[in-house]
Amino acid sequence: MACGAENISVQMNQQSLSVHGGLQVEQFSGRQDRGTRAHTERVRTIARCIAERMGLSDEELAAIEIGALLHDVGKIGVTDAILRKPGPLEREEYEQIREHPAKGRHLLGSIACLEGAIPCVLHHHERFDGLGYPARLAGRDIPLPVRIISVADAFDAMTSDRPYRRPMPVRAALAELRRGAGRQFDPEVVQAFLWVWRRGRLAFLLEREAQPPRGSALAPLRGLVDSPHQVAHEIA
Ligand SMILES: [Fe+2]
Fold first, then answer.
1. Which of 21-25, 89-93, 139-143 has the lowest average pLDDT?
2. Which of 19, 47, 80, 93 has CB atoms 3.0–4.6 Å from 152's, for a disulfide?
3. Considering only the top CATH level, what class is 5-226?
4. Confidence class of residue 63 from pLDDT cuts 50, 70 and 90?
């Protein structure tokens, strides 16, 4: 049984993650603020644009969208006091954040139709050079959908306003991606992102306040595509 991204998006907007009535994780979107939901929607859109550029199949595109929506689901196991802490994290707090991929994997483990999203949830903080976590996977041992979500997540995180810092200018974020190619990021994925960016397909990110999260981004997403110092909280 497979779950579509449409299903998940709709259910999340109803303040619960409900998959075919089999499981409800009400804390997830119930605890997500508007900014977090908007972030996951943007990561979904960016990741899909990259994946389309790289020629992934429709099935892979669907898996990437679901993985992007759920990649941080494990953060429901981290307190808001830590997630929103304006200052530097204590070591124990940082360790709690580093557990969110494993918590997310555990959360999705019993949902058969979301099995395809588990690699994205568990491995989205791995690095191309093998210095990430939790498994220290490197290079192509990291599944391609995960490498794509990693770039999408990093770009949106860098250019987003957070309680503990101001957003990074887009020009600086693009430079960070280039600098991280081959180290944190898959260079081919960075190239695909830059190709998409140069063609203006992600220009809406510059007007994010005018683009509230939608229940389903698929329709506007298709229209979009058819027309022509990362911080420790997030990547460490
Ligand atoms: Fe994460």
1. 21-25
2. 47
3. mainly alpha
4. confident
pLDDT given at position 5: 58
Q: Cα(195) to centroid of ligand 1, in Å?
A: 25
Q: Express each pLDDT in 102-116 by its tens digit.
A: 999 988 887 777 888
Structure tokens that stand for 204 in this block: 């809406």
The reported pTM is 0.78
57 CA → ligand 1 middle, Å: 25
| Residue 160, φ and ψ in degrees, nearest 5 | -100, 150
Q: Which of 160, 182, 163 is nearest to 230 (CA)?
A: 160
Which residues fall within 8 angstroms of residue 61, CB to CB, at 6 or more apart? 48, 51, 52
Q: What is the DSSP string of 79-114?
A: -HHHHT-SSPPPHHHHHHHHTHHHHHHHHHTT-GGG
Contact 16, 25 (CB under 8 A): yes
Centroid of ligand 1 to alpha carbon of 200 (angstroms): 26
